[in-house]
Amino acid sequence: MFQMMTGMINNIFFIIFPIVLYQMFAPAGKRNFFVSHRVTLTVLFSVSILLCMFFPYQFLTDDYIFDLRQVPMIVGALYGGPLVSAILFIVSALGRMVIGGDGMYIAILNQLLLAMGVPLLRPFYMRINRAGKVGFVFLITFLSFFFNLIAGYFLFGDPIHDLIDIWLLLMLNQGAITALAALLIEHILRQEYMLNSLMKHEKLETVSHFAASVSHELRNPLQSVKGFLQLMQEQEYSREKRLEFQGTMLEEIEAADQLINDYLLFAKPVQKQLEVLKVESEVEQVLKVMKPYAHWGKVEIRLAEFHGSAKILADKQKLHQALINIIRNGIEAMPDGGTLDIAIKERKNEVSIKVKDAGNGMTKEEIQRLGEPYFSTKSKGTGLGMMVTYSIIRQMGGEIQVSSEKGKGTSFTLSFPLV
Ligand code: ADP
Ligand code: MG
């Protein structure tokens, strides 16, 4: 009994380990089982299949040597689809041939049926709720065992005894563990979904928060165009004068157009894409979007000169979102206005962006709580900005350093590995 338990626990560990490893090492926001990292996951699942097969356990009596290889096969097929399923089948079939012995053909046939059948059920599986999913994996397990039982009886004349005390228990055993693995994956997927929707929500909040300052900023060029038009209505001007007015009006309209473009570019929904980006031009783009808001808050943004062409690998929109959150906090930390200093520095193999304000600063406790969801000291704050920023920067393999003194100001330094 004791041996059976340890054997079983080993098998469960073999199954859980790829999922836990994935949860630990895949970047937050991207743990979408087999959508990205398909190859890594297929390799990990193959390893667990082989481990399960080579370290089987006795189930209740000496007659039944059992292992849980079907669990990664079923879960892999459900989440990974036909291709992953085919590869997992090949791995398990080869493994089974190495082990040999009687029952080999039934086992391989059974695995083949699983590997072909389960991916067909995937679209249905993806649509049902969690309770449905648990029932569903039990059903697959049941069918697979049923096949073994029947095939054994007809092909080899294996008696169908031990029906309740062994087969049913085995089935429940494997069904429960498959359900456990599926639930674990569902849990991780749900967490990722929540994190991603929080990011979207936080971005929308920023976009709508900027709306007032952007429309305020748009009013200037409109007023100026209106003024010129009125002037030209009041009296006749020389052709030269008229051309001059029209030139200025065109410039104003272009500035307004550009402002709207920058704003909309930032407001656009997030598309996940990694690309090589030039740090300086990204910072400049962000500053354009921030300009109306800074202006509105009587803050002057100064970008120190940078002579370099540091490039990093990042998701453009996310990088912008992170920078905007930090710059926005800097502006908001100076309610009476002031200057915000931004400097880019390139070192051996990394580049840093420093954002320094002369605002109200933070205590040690506040610095420690930075990035905690819903931690905010502002009456209308969401406390999501820094949480999102931290997860974005971590996703990109970057780091954030904070130094702050209450009443003096704060500086945030983001550093990223260079490409
Ligand atoms: P919110 O801006 O909605 O409050 P954030 O997650 O962006 O949420 O920031 C959390 C908290 O961290 C802020 O409420 C503020 O207390 C503190 N904080 C962040 N940046 C600064 C800064 N530059 N200066 C002072 N305090 C800051
Ligand atoms: Mg904020």
UniProtKB/TrEMBL annotation:
Cellular-component GO terms for this entry: plasma membrane
Biological source species: Planococcus glaciei
Pfam family, one: HATPase_c
Signal peptide: none
Domain of life: Bacteria
Official protein name in the record: histidine kinase
KW Kinase (keyword) present: yes
Positions of the Histidine kinase domain: 213-419
UniProt cross-references to Gene3D superfamilies, sorted A to Z: 1.10.287.130, Histidine kinase-like ATPase, C-terminal domain
